[in-house]
Amino acid sequence: MPRNMVTIDGNTAAAHVAHATNEVIAIYPITPSSVMGEISDEKSARGEKNIWGTVPLVAELQSEGGASGAVHGALQAGALTTTFTASQGLLLMIPNMYKIAGELTSTVFHVSARAVATQALSIFGDHSDVMSCRSTGWAMLCSNNVQEVMDFALIAQAATLRSRLPFLHFFDGFRTSHEVQKVEELSFDDMRQMIDDNLVNEHRARALTPDRPVLRGTAQNPDVYFQARETVNASYPECLKVVQQEMDKFAKLTGRKYKPVQYVGAKDAERVIVIMGSGADTVQETVQTLSAKGEKVGLIKVRLYRPFPLDAFVKALPSSVTKIAVLDRTKEPGSLGEPLYLDVRTAIGEAMAAGKYRGTGYPVIVGGRYGLGSKEFTPAMAKAVFDNLKLKNPKNHYVVGITEDLTGSSLDYNPSFRTPMTETFEAMFYGLGSDGTVGANKNSIKIIGETTKNYAQAYFVYDSKKAGTITTSHLRFGKKPINSPYLIDNADFIACHNFTFLEKYDMLEKAKPGGTFLLCAPFAKEEVWDRMPVEVQQQIIGKKLKFFVIDAIKLAEELGLGARINVIMQTAFFKISGILPLATALKEIKGAIKKSYGKAGDKVVEMNNRAVDEALKNIHEVIVPAAATSKLVMPPAVSGQAPQFVQQVTAPIIAGRGDQLPVSLIPRDGTFPTATSQYEKRNIAVEIPVWDEALCIQCGICAFVCPHAAIRMKAYPGELLAGKPASFKSCEAKIPEVKGMQLTLQVAPEDCTGCGACAYNCPAKDKTNPGHKALDMKFQPPLRAQEAANFDFFLALPDLDPASLKLDTLRGSQLVRPIFEFSGACAGCGETPYLKLLSQLFGDRALIANATGCTSIYGGNLPTTPWAKRADGRGPAWSNSLFEDNAEFGYGMRLAVDKFTMFARELVNQLIEDPSFKGSRELLREINGADQSNQAGIETQRGRVEKLRALIGTSPVEAAQKLLPLVDYLVEKSVWCVGGDGWAYDIGYGGLDHVIASGKNVNLLVLDTEVYSNTGGQASKSTPLGAVAQFAAGGKTMPKKDLGLMAMSYGNVYVASVALSNPAQVVKAFLEAEAFDGPSLIIAYAHCIAHGIDMTRGIDEQKKAVASGHWPLYRYNPALAEEGKNPLQLDSKAPSIAFEEYAYGENRYKSIKKLNPEVADRLMQQASKVAKARFDYYQKLAGLDFES
Question: Does residue 658 have a known ligand-binding role?
Answer without folding.
Answer: no
